[in-house]
Design a protein that fits this description.
Chain B: GO terms for molecular function: phosphate transmembrane transporter activity. Chain B: Part of the binding-protein-dependent transport system for phosphate; probably responsible for the translocation of the substrate across the membrane. Chain B: Pfam families: BPD_transp_1, DUF3708. The structure holds two protein chains of two kinds. Helices cover 63% and strands 4% of the residues of chain A. Chain A is extended, with a radius of gyration of 33 Å. Chain A starts with a helix and ends with a helix. Chain A is mainly alpha-helical. The longest helix of chain A has 39 residues. Chain A has a three-stranded antiparallel beta sheet. A two-stranded antiparallel ribbon of chain A has the order 2-3. The radius of gyration of chain B is 30 Å and the shape is flat. The mean pLDDT of chain B is 89. In chain B, a hairpin with a 7-residue loop joins β1 and β2. In chain B, strands 1-2 form a two-stranded antiparallel ribbon. Chain B starts with a helix and ends with a helix. Chain B is mainly alpha-helical. Chain B has two domains: 115 residues, no CATH class; 244 residues, MetI-like fold (Orthogonal Bundle), CATH 1.10.3720. Chain B contains 14 helices and two strands, in the order αααααββααααααααα. The chains are: A mainly alpha, B mainly alpha.
Chain lengths: 454, 393
């Protein structure tokens, strides 16, 4: 006490120069102010780096993936020769089934050869192989399906768009250049020239590719036909299961912990468990799913039901935490009023508190679902990487059918040998991000619309 | 009848039970519901719950434990019995509301117990399968072996150390990226930025947290890996592959930035304003206040946040699966491909597995190691953060 009042000479004052004005910076102040500016700049740089990383990430994904939504088709006259597709000659679809896609490939090769001749396209070194690899194997299959569906087409000349191979497709997306075509075993410079000539004639068109979103996955040698249909359906089924299970269970658990739980060991154990489960690595949940749901209960591998159950357990802690926050935000006066007019605690909860907390609960649930939608690692372990080319049937049986999921499909495509699948993987991520964006916007909308300040 | 249709039939009976219970209570009260102890709806719910719950539980149990075929139809009989019994109990004096509320409370407790059940299931499945693994493979060789060469033909070496090395090395690089950036961003946002800047920047950084890890994985594989290889690794002669510890570490660091920044933001904001005001009043600059007053006060909390981020980094899977490679080795060069515990769990458990071979079961031992490591870090971090919060409350 006395120290503060006794006047004491400043220890540095004898040596310090006499300062005339506060407005003139001495050397030490300059140094300190420079340190201040530096420190501030570090903060700006840190934020700049974080945002630059985000922008760069999104930019590369969109740059690489947007072309997956477009596909190049050729429009040339194709003669459906009767002796090839219908050797028996009786237009019986059952008999025509025997002609495999190979036969239709021949039709397309002939059509392309005829087209080259007719238009007087002269290309040095254009081999038969260049012609036969020009179209996608999917193009042959499409043609076969069209003819089998309508046998009247046999013997006519049709002009339907035919899907080109991934290399030809890549020539119009900047993925394949003249130089890279020369080095690539799956295409050639002659094929490149042919594609350019056809484009000049207006017979090659690149158009929006709905098949990428709707069709099934395809085998290694036709990346151009691979689609997301099964993956989207699988993800949808799983989200349905997660929503139906985790919302009621999460809300029930939160209500109990927030309103009814006595303060005892059991309650403490539950609380500790929830906060720890929220931080358990997701891959551990995959091990759990494999050991319990697949090996012990005997549910089929790669089924949406198993994925849905695993993701439910994974999202429950998040949903419980946000639901409890929403319940806590309802002011006690509401509870007191209801209890005061004779409602039971249950009635207070379900008739008054829960409806008022619902917007917050829904927001938390949607964000939990968005998290679950992007989760990959646990699904790998329960076998959702399987190559699935048939759509799962409608629920409830469809929950047991093998399916894929959006993020797993991305992983799957990165593991393929053909680099054309990388475009597909980035495209799939765009679809995934679009779903996430939509869910987050919905959550923000709900929060804005129903937000209440008490 | 398949279990699914039995379930539907049970639910239909429950709806019927609700209607019957409700109308019976009204009839017994002679139309004057004031004579009832509970409102008619509760009588209805009481009947419905007693019809559906025991039957559905039996059905679920039958499915879970592979019970013989006659059990499922028995559920239907149980539902009918429940319907009859609870209907006969429906009288004006019957305390239907209390009965219903007891059941609902029970359901709430069961739902809350699912958290414990999940932890228990995780621990049990990991421990049991790991025990089987250690019966086939000596634990010393697993924990201290320096060679990882699984071969399904037999004679495989399953030493964990190379995987642990890769895991820790990648996590370290990730933290070296994420902690300075996240921390400085948090400091700037809490102590310098205007509310307007903050309202734009904070959500933008948090977008990074909402992006699924598979997206980061693809980014590492397609963009960052080749970039680091062409611009740093090859010119310096350090490596020639796109997959490397550095690739995975840098991208994982990106992913952790929002994690570190939002946690430290909370913690820095929790430092009482009086400490700042005191320091500023003494004539220190803003940065001196932060460095010498705010950060030391917030240090325990920040350490907790870093530990949480470390646990997240150790358990991260997709980024390392796509970015780090699959070569198990111990090397100090960050531009070489190495592998982690999580990569090997995925590697050993995808595809067709033989659950009697040590090569598959080793994944469970790896999972147990991972679980124990992350759990330990989490508990430590939560303990530190809680201690710190109490200090200023």
């Amino acid at each position: 006490m006395t120290d503060a009042t006794t006047p004491r000479p400043h220890p540095a004052s004898p040596a310090a120069p006499v300062r005339r004005s506060l407005l003139i910076e001495d050397a030490r102040t300059k140094r300190r102010n420079a340190a201040e500016r530096r420190f501030r700049a570090y903060g700006v740089v840190a934020i700049g780096l974080a945002i630059a990383a985000l922008v760069f990430l999104l930019f590369t994904i969109f740059r690489d993936g947007s072309s997956a939504f477009f596909q190049t088709y050729a429009r040339i006259p194709v003669a459906i020769e009767a002796q090839v597709v219908d050797p028996a000659g009786n237009r019986d679809p059952a008999e025509m089934q025997k002609v495999l896609t190979m036969g239709y490939g021949k039709l397309l090769d002939n059509a392309l050869a005829a087209y080259v001749e007719e238009n007087g396209i002269q290309i040095e070194g254009l081999s038969e192989r260049d012609l036969s690899t020009f179209f996608s194997a999917q193009g042959r299959a499409d043609l076969r399906n069209a003819v089998l569906a309508d046998p009247a087409l046999v013997g006519t000349v049709i002009e339907a768009p035919v899907m080109t191979s991934s290399r030809v497709d890549g020539m119009f997306k900047g993925r394949v250049s003249r130089d890279s075509a020369a080095r690539d075993a799956k295409t050639s410079v002659a094929q490149y020239e042919l594609a350019m000539a056809m484009e000049k004639q207006g017979d090659l068109q690149t158009r929006f590719n709905w098949d990428f979103v709707t069709s099934t996955d395809s085998s290694d040698n036709r990346p151009e036909a691979a689609g997301l249909g099964v993956a989207i359906l699988g993800s949808l089924y799983m989200m349905l299961i997660v929503l139906v299970l985790s919302l009621p269970i999460g809300v029930a658990a939160s209500i109990y912990l927030e309103e009814f739980a006595p303060k005892n060991r059991l309650t403490d154990a539950i609380e500790v468990n929830i906060s720890n489960l929220a931080a358990v690595p997701s891959i551990v949940f995959g091990i759990l799913g494999l050991a319990v749901f697949v090996n012990f209960v005997g549910l089929p591998r790669s089924a949406p039901i198993v994925g849905g159950l695993v993701l439910t357990l994974l999202t429950l802690p998040t949903i419980i935490i946000s639901t409890r926050a929403a319940l806590k935000a309802v002011p006690p006066s509401i509870r007191d009023a209801a209890l005061g007019v004779g409602a039971s605690r249950m009635q207070t909860m379900f008739h008054h508190v829960l409806p008022l907390a619902m917007p917050g609960i829904l927001t938390g649930t949607i964000l939990g679902l968005a998290h679950a939608l992007g989760e990959t690692a646990p699904l790998l372990l329960i076998g959702m990487v399987a190559f699935v080319t048939t759509y799962p049937s409608a629920p409830p049986e469809g929950f047991l059918d093998p399916a894929s999921a959006l993020p797993v499909q991305v992983y799957n495509w990165t593991q393929r040998a053909d680099p054309a699948f990388f475009e597909r993987a980035s495209g799939a991520i765009i679809v995934l991000l679009a779903f996430l964006l939509a869910m987050n916007l919905l959550a923000i909308y709900l929060r804005r619309k129903f937000e209440r300040r008490w | 009848m398949s279990p699914f249709w039995i379930m539907i039939a049970t639910l239909a009976l429950a709806v019927l039970g609700y209607l019957l219970g409700r109308s019976r209570s009204i009839r017994l009260a002679g139309g004057d519901t004031r004579a009832l102890h509970s409102r008619p709806g509760y009588h209805g719910w009481n009947v419905a719950l007693f019809t559906a719950l025991p039957a559905l539980l039996l059905l679920a149990g039958a499915r879970l434990f592979h019970a013989p075929g006659w059990v499922a139809p028995a559920a239907l009989v149980l539902a009918l019995a429940g319907l009859g019994l609870s209907l006969s109990r429906t009288t004006p004096q019957f305390r239907a509301r209390n009965s219903v509320e007891r059941v609902i409370r029970g359901v709430l407790v069961v739902c809350a117990l699912i958290a414990i059940a999940t932890t228990l299931a995780i621990v049990l499945s990991l421990v049991f399968e790991s025990a089987r693994f250690f019966q086939m493979y000596p634990w010393q060789d697993f924990f201290f072996g320096t060679e990882w060469t699984p071969s399904f033909g037999g004679g495989s070496k399953l030493g964990m150390l190379p995987l642990l090395w890769g895991t820790l090395y990648i996590s370290l690089i990730a933290l070296l990226v994420a902690v300075p950036i996240g921390l400085y961003a948090a400091i700037y946002m809490s102590d310098y930025a205007s509310p307007r800047v903050r309202s734009v920047v904070k959500p933008a950084i948090e977008v990074l947290a909402g992006i699924p890890t598979i997206v980061y994985g693809l980014f590492a594989l397609v963009t960052v890996g080749p970039l680091l290889r062409d611009w740093i690794a090859q010119p310096l002669g350090l490596g020639s592959g796109g997959s490397s510890v550095m690739t995975a570490g840098v991208v994982m660091g990106m992913m952790l930035i929002p994690f570190v920044s939002s946690l430290s933001d909370d913690i820095i904001n929790a430092v009482p304003q009086s400490l700042r005001d005191g320091s500023l009043a003494m004539g220190s600059t803003h940065s001196e206040t932060i460095r010498q007053v705010v950060l030391p006060a917030a240090l325990p909390g920040i350490v907790g946040a870093i530990l949480l981020a470390a646990s997240r980094a150790i358990g991260e899977t997709m980024i390392v699966v796509l970015g780090a490679g699959a070569m198990a080795k111990i090397s100090p060069n960050p531009f070489e491909a190495m592998t982690t515990i999580t990569v090997k769990i995925v590697g050993q458990l995808t595809g067709d597995n033989d659950f009697a071979s040590p090569e598959t079961l080793v994944a469970f031992a790896l999972g147990l190691t991972l679980f124990v490591m992350t759990l330990g870090l989490n508990i430590l971090a939560l303990y530190i953060v809680r201690k710190y919060r109490e200090q200023y409350e």
